[in-house]
Design brief:
The protein has 154 residues and is mostly helical. 85% of the residues lie in helices and 0% in strands. The chain has seven helices and no strands. It is globular and about 50 Å long. 32% of the residues are buried.
Length: 154
Amino acid sequence: MQRQQAAVIGGLVAGVVTSAVMWAGRKSGLMTKTLDRDAVDWIDDVTGSRAVIGDTGTSMVEFTNHLGASAAFASALPTLRQLAPSLSPVVLGTLYGTALYAVNIGAIAPVLGITKGEIAAGPRKAGERWAIHVLQAVVTAVVAERLTSPVAKR
């Protein structure tokens, strides 16, 4: 399979995995209000979507956006792999996930009003957000690696 296709598929798988982890984390009490719920609130604040399509509909809009973003961010992975061919997918994913967290959550999300910033979030919530970004990028990298490995081509 081509590296770009494999990365996008890995990103989609990672989007589903991270959504499931956030849902399970919230339901079990292991995580606080997760970023996906912040995004649902933001979508509703900007569009009034809950009044039209309800919370479930707004959540589905956010999930679709989450999968799209995950696939889009995954598309950078083949270039990163070329720049660091000796790194394991776990290390590469950890570094990329950390970079995504810093840019997306540390800089962009507060400017858009999706979050109030990581200092306001506190160490626990900030740590959860970082961990989810790392999980997303690691799953993406591992799946992409498996789909492009010689074993996968047989």
